[in-house]
Specification:
Helix content: 40-55%
Structural class: alpha/beta
Shape: globular
Bound molecules: adenosine-5'-diphosphate, magnesium ion
CATH superfamily of the largest domain: P-loop containing nucleotide triphosphate hydrolases
CATH topology of the largest domain: Rossmann fold
Number of strands: 8
Strand content: 5-15%
Order of helices and strands: HHEEHHEHEHEHHEHEHEHHHHHHHHHH
Number of helices: 20
Number of domains: 4
CATH architecture of the largest domain: 3-Layer(aba) Sandwich
Strand order of the largest sheet: 5-6-7-4-8
Oligomer: single chain
Distance between the termini: 45 Å
Radius of gyration: 25 Å
CATH class of the largest domain: Alpha Beta
Length: 498
């Protein structure tokens, strides 16, 4: 509650009765403390130290960070986690938005008749009922589970739709599918290929196969844990840490099959050690481990050599791009599934074949295309024609062409990440704050474009090609030694390629 003297009341006094003004500032401070405790100092310092609460309004908490880079990283990796943690403190919080400080329209102050917080309350002065800003990103709250509190080892639930039965087999995934089925069906002593390591680009069916393994193995009575990298890092490891070494081993013995998705996201020294330890313990005890990643084990730069080689020591299978026949099959299966619940939804074979030819990237885009066709048909009440299909999926089609990345875009993005201007990057200035982003931008220009070193030098304020070469070598070396920088550069690459 707002006190008469204008200071903000503590949580105990003003808090959860819903009627008064909630003290979001101290709730937010507790959220940050919890995130720090749960995620560890490394992760917290990299991503959350500069995350601030700007306003809460109508169940939406608006958070801000200084750069687009941080916004994108937090949105893609931690939105659910931040939401759930915040919600645990303040029940009314139903959505999180992340904005970039200084770049969006200032938050409007709505006169509520309540006295303004005194300037002495610092950042709290900015916490007020605000007009709801345009959503930048929002997620619905996940049901809370025991794992969140760091309590159990139950893992992430399996999606009932992602089974072997709904998985369409083609040339590019036949081997991965066969290995997955064998691992799931295996009974008796020891494990088959341990670990089974699946890797592929996004949307090619890794998660689908992992869930398929999970369902099948559970049906066969085996004790299965499926975990995303996030869950592994923040739930599982915490749960393990709170056990004695003996209890820990006991818990591990209770697992027949551990499935880990997206292991490329596992990072941080202590988590990595925990990860290596867990994998070793399970494999040594003859338990099956299955992992998926977007890259082969040798390219998991964030992990140390021993962990990488252990991961690569079983069977490594790649799922390659979906060929056209497979895309047609996946699409037909999807269309049939949708038709079961929308009997009027009719897509001609010509349209289906056009979509399967046009969308080459991945299964997720095929699914997106089906949803758009369905939306179109439902909204207009007309059958899907070639023209409407073309219009509906146009942007998905455009996305598939590998984008030609411009040096200028690289400079702009890197500048915004490091809070310098593009002209700083092109300038003669040699302060560390400018030199590092400049070298990263040069490195990215070399690896993401076909420009020659002299050409890149010219585009960076007329520098010599040896300067560019020096920068490229230096960043290459640093990426190898510093996994935080490695992740950053990797994310910059992905943002440029999107
Ligand atoms: P990944 O984990 O590799 O990024 P997913 O497993 O999430 O990809 O697949 C993306 C979407 O494409 C999912 O809806 C999935 O069901 C679908 N999909 C991918 N491959 C297949 C396949 N072979 N058969 C059926 N659906 C598939
Ligand atoms: Mg996946």
């Amino acid at each position: 509650m707002m006190r008469v003297d204008g200071t903000v009341a503590s949580d105990d006094e003003g808090g959860r009765n819903g009627g008064g003004t909630m003290d979001y500032g101290s709730a937010w401070a507790r959220v940050k403390r919890r995130l720090r405790a749960e995620l560890g100092e490394d992760v917290f310092a990299s991503w959350f130290a500069r995350l601030e609460l700007e306003a809460v309004s109508g169940g939406t908490a608006r958070l801000t960070v200084p750069t687009r880079f941080l916004k994108s990283w937090i949105e893609s990796h931690y939105l659910d986690r931040v939401l759930n943690t915040f919600k645990a403190e303040v029940e009314e919080i139903a959505r999180i938005e992340v904005g970039v400080r200084g770049s969006s329209a200032p938050v409007r102050t709505v006169a509520t008749g309540a006295p303004k917080a005194s300037p002495a309350s610092g950042p709290l002065a900015r916490l007020h009922a605000a007009g709801t800003p345009a959503p930048v990103a929002a997620v619905a709250p996940e049901p809370r589970s025991a794992t969140e509190a760091g309590g159990d080892l139950s893992g992430t639930p399996l999606d009932a739709r992602l089974t072997f039965a709904s998985f369409v087999i083609g040339r590019s995934n036949a081997l991965a599918h066969a290995a997955a089925e064998r691992v799931a069906a295996h009974q008796g002593e020891g494990a088959l290929y341990n670990p089974l390591y699946l890797h592929a680009g996004v949307g090619l069916g890794k998660t689908h196969l992992l869930h398929g393994i999970g369902h099948a193995a559970r049906e066969a009575g085996r004790r299965v844990i499926y975990l995303t990298a996030d869950r592994f890092m923040y739930g599982f490891v915490n749960a393990l840490k709170t056990q004695s070494a003996l209890a820990y081993k006991e818990r591990l013995r209770g697992i027949d099959l551990l499935i880990l998705d997206d292991v490329q996201f596992i990072q941080g020294k202590s988590i990595q050690a925990e990860f290596g330890h867990t994998i070793n313990a399970l494999i040594d005890a003859g338990r099956q481990v299955v992992v998926a990643s977007d890259r082969p084990p040798t390219e998991l730069e964030a992990l140390d050599e021993r962990v990488r080689s252990r991961l690569g020591g079983g069977l490594v299978v790649e799922i390659t791009a979906l060929d056209e026949a497979l895309r047609v099959s996946i699409l037909s299966a999807r269309l049939a599934a949708v038709r079961a619940s929308h009997p009027g939804f009719d897509v001609s074979p010509q349209v289906a074949s056009y979509v399967a030819r046009a969308i080459t990237a991945n299964g997720r885009d095929l699914e997106g295309a089906v949803n758009r066709l369905l939306a179109h048909a439902t909204l207009t009440g007309t059958a899907v024609t070639m023209e409407t299909a073309e219009a509906a999926i146009r942007d998905l089609v455009k996305n598939r062409e590998p984008k030609r990345i411009k040096i200028e875009d690289i400079q702009k993005l890197v500048a915004s990440r490091y809070n310098v201007s593009r002209s700083d990057i092109l300038s003669e200035r040699r302060t560390a704050a400018v030199v590092k982003p400049r070298q990263i931008a040069m490195y990215l220009s070399k690896v993401l474009t076909l420009r020659s070193l002299p050409e890149i030098g010219r585009r960076f304020g007329g520098r010599d090609h040896t300067t560019v070469l020096h920068a490229v070598r230096k960043i290459e070396k640093q990426i190898g030694e510093d996994s935080v920088l490695g992740d950053e550069v990797e994310l910059l690459k992905r943002m440029l390629q999107d």
